[in-house]
Amino acid sequence: MISPVLQSLAAYPFTRLNEAIAAAEARGIDVIDFGMGDPREPTPEFVRRALVESVPDRSGYPLAQGLPELREAIAAWAARRFGAELDPGREVIPTLGSKEAIYLLAQMVVSPERRSVVVPEPAYPVYERGALFAGAEVAIAPLREEDGFLPRLDAIPDDAAIVWVNYPNNPTGALAPLSFYEELAALARERGFVLASDEAYTELWFTEPPASALQLADRRNVIVFNTLSKRSSMTGYRSGFAAGDPELVSAMKAFRPTVGVAPQEFVQRAAIAAWNDEVHVEQTRERYRAKREILLDVFGRRGVRVVASDATMYLWIAVDEPSESFATRLLERGVAVAPGAYFGAAGEGYARLALVPTLDDCRRAAAILDEAL
Which residue, 28, 187, 231, 270, is most buried by CB atoms nearer than 10 A? Predict the structure, then answer.
């Protein structure tokens, strides 16, 4: 009666982590939670106001293609941020966050002739799970520290339908240069697969702005996903977009009415306000920078090696014991981190900290870590 794919999957990793945190708190441990990457920064007031002012007396079904004003705001943001010229009518579609669109992509492009989906590891679990539920074969592309956490492109299967990449990377915080996207996009055109780029963290950086696949001169076979969840602390709003090859965007417009995942129009109005403003994004980056520096200081003093971690809201640290036992040991002291193994076998030997607690809690955690490490 139940899908064998669903039955075969282990519990979603962060469900397990949340259960462990709840059990620790039930034992009286005051837990500072660096586990899940759900921002706790306040959503900007002007965004909340835009949403409230946009709630109508009657709300009808939203259209799959989204409001033209939102598509135009997204295209204008991409032009300012990346110098990318996007046609709002043909190359942009709003999404309900980016998670559902990432999950559903395989439903649209996997075929009997193209059954493989290449997913990085360590990685966000949704690339793999979306592929499995679409009946695809999953090909793992390990991200190795010695390769700068970039996948090796010589192992892409001949029947690849999608090659997933994610930079700035979750969980490692690694970056990809534009030349990487150029090489992979050329392969995508030559061999007929889709380059799918999850770019949820492009706006959380600490040295220089990350590159994007939207900067490619030729975006055939390329689709990019981005979201307001991390950039604007709007995870609960579920607002993002996909942009790129007009053929792929057109396929999304045709597919999405079937599954009913168009964002509500009042959320789209709030999203317009968010994409049109950069001041709040700069302020958010500075808050993450301050938290990051507190933890970098304690890790440096305790000889813990921080790996990559050039962008995103995460720190990726090397650990000298199994990552789950490391996380369990810290949890008993009141600091929750995500074991690297939660992101796949290639994540073993590392742990991830999401910089979501308050600045004061980061200071308290640093004092605990100073004793525990």
Answer: 270
List, as one string, the DSSP characters of 248-277: HHHHHHHHHHHHT-PPPHHHHHHHHHHHT-
CATH number of 4-43+279-372: 3.90.1150.10
Q: Hey, which CATH number is domain 58-275, 3.40.1160.10, 3.90.950.10, 3.40.640.10, 3.40.50.960?
A: 3.40.640.10
**Tokens, residue 265:** 């129009």
Our CA dihedral for 359, 29, 340, 233, rounded to 10 degrees, sits at: -40
Return the bridge partners of 339, or none: 351
Enumerate helices (H) and strands (E) in the chain, giving the number of each.
13, 13
Would you state the structure tokens that stand for residue 166, as one six-digit string? 């994610």
Q: How big is the CA angle at 187 (ends 183 and 189), to the nearest 5 degrees?
A: 120
Q: Digits of tens for pLDDT over the chain (373 positions)?
A: 889 888 888 777 788 899 999 999 999 999 999 998 888 889 999 999 999 999 999 988 899 999 999 999 999 999 999 999 999 999 999 999 999 999 999 999 999 999 999 999 999 899 999 999 999 999 999 999 999 999 999 989 999 999 999 999 999 999 999 999 999 999 999 999 999 999 999 999 999 999 999 999 999 999 999 999 999 999 999 999 999 999 999 999 999 999 888 899 999 999 999 999 999 999 999 999 999 999 999 999 999 999 999 999 999 999 999 999 999 999 999 999 999 999 999 999 999 999 999 999 999 999 999 999 9
Q: How far apart are CA 1 and CA 294, in angstroms?
A: 51
| DSSP H or E run through 304 | none
CA–CA–CA angle 239, 244, 246 (5° rounding) = 110
Compute φ and ψ for 185, nearest 5 degrees: -65, -40
8 A C-beta contact, residue 327 and residue 338: yes
The answer to whether domain 4-43+279-372 and domain 58-275 are alike in fold is no
Chain centre distance of CA 233 = 13
